[in-house]
Amino acid sequence: MKVLLVTGKLAYESVKEIASQLKDVKADVIALNYPIASLMTVDYIAENLKNISLKDYDYIIIPGLASGDAQKIQEVTKVKTYKGSEDYRDIPRVIEALSKGETLSTIYPADTILKKKKEEDIEKILRELEEKGDFAFEIDGLKIPRYPPPFRIFIEFDASKDIEFLLGEAKRVSNYVNVIVLGFPNGHEDLDEVRKKVTKFREEGYIVGIDSASTKELIEGAKAGADFIFNLNEDNINELAVIKDKAFVVAPLSIENRANVTFNLYRKAKEIGFEKLILDPILSPPMVGLVDSIFEYKKLRDLTDAPMLMGILNVTELIDVDSIGVNALLTAIAGELKIGNLLIMEHGKTRWSSYEVNIATKMISVSLHKKSLPKDLGLDLLILKDKKRIKEKIRNPEDYLFINEHIEPKNMDKGFVVIKVADKIYLEWKGKENIKISGTDGLSIGRKLIELKKDINNEHSLYIGYELAKAELAFKLDKNYIQDEPLFVRGYNIIDSNNNTTKKK
């Protein structure tokens, strides 16, 4: 296969270096007399290629962000022409796709086409896994897997909260979870509240579980429509027989020999007439038995093919670490142990665990299906870090003025801004005029401020733009934003401008 890569003057050397590293493909590079490749139009490219003999090429690849339909170039050159990647560093991926016979687009960048195709492939796999899954039972239309894939996600809410708040949270996570579990605190004994909240959630169309230390509350919740009961244990198994048509999570009170105790509870429940059972020998928090408890899950899985549940909230909630990686790793562990049901919670630093675990279960499902590592699947949870660092090559770095000190402002306006982040970004200009703007796009908020307050000087505009960028990042990452304070801090240390580790001040 022979390919012609079209680029501009600034990117020529970089594209040429990438072309030289391509295997099993002959790739030539032509730089048109235009500085920035992405700003070229297809008309300009066609005009500059029309008098060049290109008959030996199988494909012409133009910059992904070039404007217009590349079909025009194909008509002029008589060579199949496609748009490549938005970033020249991704050219190898584009060439690989062509080598495999994949069809790219004359209109959209190759990144968009390849990403869409991967997403379609993943969705097809996930649909097939749903259709062919090994399910133990079905309740209220939800099939409970004996083994993953697929997975089911249960999220527990603090049911002592106001009902409107709980419903708002349920709506927020509804695309990511399967069952809403209303968890009532120890000592709670208000059957009327249980009845009203379970009924309300059922009326809103949610599949509901109830978790309570009170057997009376569990029975009342079941009567009100809760389908999943947390937990069936040594103390309440006989009393809960009155609602044995419901689905139960079997979890021992004993902290010794959890696998055996759980299995014996399961067998006793079966003898009494309970049919819809999910086993949970309880995941211990870090440093107080986490590893031992994982062994208990393995022992229990070896004893039975009954569906199992792992409460990964016991780890994510009890370690001060970003929840993304913890949730992904625990989901992978559950996948290896053939545990198809996961219980999570969202509170503070674990907010959006629903999304994280949802993506993690899809990754592990596809990985189990393909018998491959959960890597390069087209799905990832790389939110704060990139898989590969881009190594920028700076020509003549000595020509750049290096700033190694904090520069204080010299010429700020008499007015000032106050920026806060809540359900959106809020900016208030305080001075002779009072201007209030809110939104979710920091750049647009800044532009609107400049439009309304035309005499903000350059130094102040730079500061406002910098703070709005921080505010938007905080909003998107669900972090706290404090004006004039760093958004990211690495533990007890920070990295200074010389890349040296210094003590946090």
UniProtKB/TrEMBL annotation:
The GO biological-process annotations, alphabetized, read as: pteridine-containing compound metabolic process
What SUPFAM superfamilies does the entry give?
Dihydropteroate synthetase-like (SSF51717)
According to the entry, every stretch annotated as the Pterin-binding domain falls at: 137-365
Q: Name one Pfam family in it.
A: PterinBD-DUF4346
Q: Which domain of life is it from?
A: Archaea
Q: Tell me the NCBIfam families matching this sequence.
A: dihydropteroate synthase-like protein
Name of this protein: Dihydropteroate synthase-like protein
Q: What is the lineage of its organism?
A: Archaea, Thermoproteota, Thermoprotei, Sulfolobales, Sulfolobaceae
